[in-house]
Amino acid sequence: RNKKQAEVPDVCTVLKNERGTAPGMLFEKNGKIFISLPGVPHEMKGLMTDHVFPLLLQRFKMPHIGHRTLLTAGVGESFLAELIKNFEEALPANIKLAYLPNYGMVRLRLTSNGADAVTVENDLNKQFTQLKQQVKEFLVVDEDISINEMTGRLLKQNNKTVSTAESCTGGYIAHLITSIAGSSAYFKGGVVSYDNSIKKNVLHVKEATLQTVGAVSEETVVEMAKGVLEVMQTDYAIAVSGIMGPDGGSEEKPVGTVWIAVGNSGR
To answer: Which of 107, 111, 88, 91 lies closest to 99 in space, CA to CA?
Structure first.
């Protein structure tokens, strides 16, 4: 089957696939270029980077394309759109604004293109400065990076460390932190205290707390955060406990109830 994937028409130029066995193919006819790529996204992206973009830039005169991206958190897309409505309507015709929403976060991206790179970049900088001012209350970072990458950068710059105590998220927060290269400089470790016995025996959450207010409560996550700070000896801690469903909810604590504690030894 792999050998079959390597078969190509004899009229094409083969584009080597460094990430798989199905090659890319370049066809030319009547001054037109046709490019065929494998459908697996990881392989397609590799071929685009290694072959297609360099080829197109070599063959055709391209306009300069500029982007400016920022990341907001804690505000929905529709509320954000209302907040910057006047700014968006006043944008020059050559600059477009895109909303790129994700869970709990929205990226805003300004894009422009033109023959003169300096003019394009200067126009973008001017509008981007205004946009940052408009959304300053919700602004996380004025670069196209993730919130976990920004968090790691801040910790590293300030020579601080963090640890996690997770219940309902099952280690996912730790995974997000460690998905960034170099995170060992600021992440010491985490405790997945899915069962109450781990909350008690490892994180030193009081039995009385669990009995009176339950595992999903402000009091419990505060004690989890204090416990993991003690165990991991870090500057900061993140603790989370919740009811993710589909079962386990109650009238007092419905499915979707989540408590999060963030702090250091003093607060």
So the answer is: 107
